[in-house]
From TrEMBL:
InterPro entries: NAD(P)-bd_dom_sf, SDR, SDR_fam
GO MF assignments: oxidoreductase activity
Keyword set, alphabetical order: Oxidoreductase
Lineage: Bacteria, Bacillati, Actinomycetota, Actinomycetes, Streptosporangiales
Homology family: Belongs to the short-chain dehydrogenases/reductases (SDR) family.
Protein name: 3-oxoacyl-[acyl-carrier protein] reductase
Pfam families: adh_short_C2
UniProt xrefs under Gene3D superfamilies: NAD(P)-binding Rossmann-like Domain
Signal peptide stretch: none
Source organism of this protein record: Thermomonospora umbrina
Amino acid sequence: MDLGLSGRRAAIAAASSGLGLATARALAAEGVHVAICGRDPERLRRAAASLGENAHAIEADVSTPDGAIGFIHHAQEALGSVDILVTNAGGPPAGDFTSTDLDAYLPALELNLLSVVAMCQAAVPPMRRRGWGRVLAITSIAVRQPIPGLILSNTARAGATGFLKTLALEVAEDGVTVNSLLPGSHETPRLQALHDGDLSQAAEQIPMRRLGDPAAFGAYAAFLCSDHASFVTGTATPIDGGTYSALL
């Protein structure tokens, strides 16, 4: 299926590996010019090289609002404009209510909530003026089903989901869609690090008894950025192999 994205321009945050890179790869395969960011210069260079000649590497840290805005401004300069924004970031430290100090909440909110707001504030107004745009946030299944021991991530990502839903309603008539994807466990370097390379236990906790394929995740993300999905906005879709088990 031709997604009709050839020639579009996308800024994908935290895309030097994992689901961010998988999304960038799927978009690049559709002819999208992509700008990706990361904090590790060498890993970022390798990732951009793997995406082809229409990829731009921007060294940036989106864990703060200033860093997030800076990434979008550099992407706009490199690409000429940004039609597609994919927000993404790593997760804050683990912890529960008892073990997590109040001081830990602000950095978590900056990482997983305020960075999303900042990137949208920088990228969405030009989309509205042009009458076409896509915002796609990679968050976590934790916004539907809080994950024990990840109180900071559960809190911040739920806030981001509320912001994105509100934004979707405000910009819908301007041709800009806003959606989020809620990944469960996918076979990424981060998950391998969390499980010391042994992912069998993580797979057993998923109804499908297997981990998610980042390439399949990227393909679904690219579809949501296409004209075929132009009537889809305000959604928060689990991609988790059935882990989320509630009716709604």
